[in-house]
Design goal:
The protein is an alpha/beta fold. The protein is built from 19 helices and twelve strands. The longest helix has 23 residues, at about 190-215. Bound molecules: guanosine-5'-triphosphate and magnesium ion (MG).
Length: about 475
């Protein structure tokens, strides 16, 4: 780990609460001049200031003794703060005018405005957090659902870091063994050693694969599940959309072709975030230019969704056109909703027993028709409030399945890319070991693999990676 130099030695300050007015705002000051600066404006601080204690009094401009605000000042001694440095936090009244006045005085006295994410960056540089944990601070701040917050919390506490550190130490062990035998050929390695090496390699590549495959799930928890309502015109997509997002967002009429553009809204259910998109109904007979553009957007949204909710009207049954639209969908990512059940009483078995349906393109892709019918098809009515949780539960069932929430999941693209590269190198090392290639080739790949893991954790310092991580943060974090 490099030590702090240059700008990193400045005492920095920024408001850490959201901008704008509020009950209170917290100004954070970090660096070795924090307490000295605070003393100049908070004459009420005692001679012996204690760490983690709060002091109450008036903050004054030292030049003219003008009262800036009545505040609480908390002091955190070097080594015992979030950043690892001496920190002072000033809780003042939540007015931008008060906050700006206090910051201006602090800056006049020698502090510098903190850059985006600089407090977290310092926590990282002072070994308070590894890079994965620093990223979890951001994820936690930005989390928009209970599940996302829980995942970020677990990563912040180190669940993912522990596993990555274990992978790193295994890779280092392998790498050291290969380095040691470079002067001999792999044939020089004893059979026992080759056996143990290859067993440990395959255990670690399995661990890497499992982390990599958790990315989709982690991303869905972090960013929300993207679901698109698709189907023919007038089947009730917008009605269902409004029901799901609990608001009259999309226009509903009995005229086919009502929805022209994509309408997107978010909703939450069972601690999960959903991003839903209503689309223009697909129909062939239209010559309306606007509707045609809308239909193209529908198709694009359909191809980008995590789950498509295909809607049809049960009073008309599954028509040839319905089957045609379905043909372009992937059954693993599709839920079929037979809408308007209040108008007609029909079981799904009755609707789906038709031979023409079973032999159509979409249903031909299924491994088990009955299983699909059971889990991914529902007959409902957009007029029934209970349909909301029924549909959202189906989406969750399809996406989350039996995934236990205690599993370590990755949710950052940076981790996903790094782990994939680590795996590629490890697999090549594994293959070369089996093919009795020279130890130096194997060692080289193992070293690369280690490096990728170290870059994820921030152990291998890389300016580009730091920039990529910390530029995502906002001021004051
Ligand atoms: N009875 C009944 N009518 C419904 C139901 N869902 C939708 N409708 C009616 O069906 C008509 C079409 O509904 P929309 O929600 O606009 O249908 P859409 O699929 O979005 O239509 P387009 O935007 O044209 O593609 C409206 O008159 C709705 O009131 C339902 O479950 N039961
Ligand atoms: Mg519509």
């Amino acid at each position: 780990m490099t030590s702090l130099v240059g700008r990193d030695l400045d005492t920095i300050c920024a408001v850490s609460t959201p901008p704008g007015t509020g009950g209170i705002s917290v100004i954070r000051v970090s660096g070795d001049k924090s307490l000295a600066l605070a003393r100049q404006i908070s004459k009420f601080l005692p001679e012996e200031v204690q760490s983690h204690k709060i002091y109450f009094g008036l903050i004054k401009d030292p030049v003219n003794s003008e009262v800036l605000d009545e505040v609480l000042v908390a002091y955190f001694q070097n080594g015992k703060s979030f950043t690892g440095e001496e920190v002072v936090e000033i809780s003042c009244h939540g007015s931008p005018v008060v906050v700006d006045a206090i910051l201006a005085v602090l800056i006049r006295l020698g502090a510098r405005m903190a850059d985006k994410g600089e407090f977290t960056y310092r926590a990282f540089m002072n070994n308070k957090l590894d890079l994965v944990q620093a990223e979890s601070v951001l994820s936690l701040i930005e989390s928009q659902s209970k599940k996302a917050a829980k995942l970020a919390q677990r990563h912040l506490q180190g669940a993912l870091s522990v596993q990555l550190n274990h992978i790193e130490s295994e890779l280092l062990w392998m790498s050291a063994h290969m380095e040691a035998s470079i002067d001999f050929s792999t044939e020089g390695l004893q059979i026992v050693e080759v056996k143990e090496l290859s067993a440990r390699m395959s255990t670690i590549s399995a661990e890497l694969k499992s982390l990599i495959s958790s990315y989709k799930m982690g991303r869905l928890i972090k960013d929300g599940i993207w679901s698109t309502l698709v189907g023919r015109a007038n089947v009730g997509k917008s009605s269902l959309f409004n029901l799901l997002v609990e608001s009259d967002r999309a226009i509903v009429t009995n005229i086919p072709g009502t929805t022209r553009d994509l309408v997107t809204a978010e909703t939450r259910h069972e601690g999960n975030k959903f991003v839903l998109t209503d689309t223009a109904g697909l129909r062939k007979e239209t010559i309306d230019q606007i509707e045609i553009i809308g239909m193209n957007r529908s198709k694009k949204a359909m191809s980008e969704a995590d789950i498509n909710l295909f809607v049809f009207d049960i009073t008309q049954g599954l028509t040839v056109e319905d089957l045609e639209i379905l043909g372009d969908l992937d059954p693993k990512e599709t839920i079929i909703l037979g809408n308007k059940s209040d108008l007609k009483s029909l079981s799904k078995e009755d609707i789906f027993k038709v031979a023409q349906i079973r032999t159509s393109k979409f249903f031909q892709k299924l491994t088990s028709f009955d299983d699909f019918l059971n889990r991914q098809v529902r007959i409902l009515s957009a007029l029934d409030i209970k349909s909301r949780s029924a549909v959202l539960d189906m989406i969750l069932g399809q996406i989350v399945g039996n995934n236990s929430s205690d599993e370590v999941l990755i949710s950052h693209a940076r981790h996903f890319e790094g782990l994939n590269l680590a795996l590629t190198h490890l697999e090549r090392a594994e293959k070369n070991l089996q093919n009795k290639m020279g130890a130096e080739f194997i060692a080289m790949d193992l070293k690369e693999s280690v490096l990728k893991i170290q870059q994820i954790l921030g152990k291998a310092f890389d300016d580009q990676i730091m920039d990529r991580v910390f530029k995502e943060f906002c001021l004051g974090k």
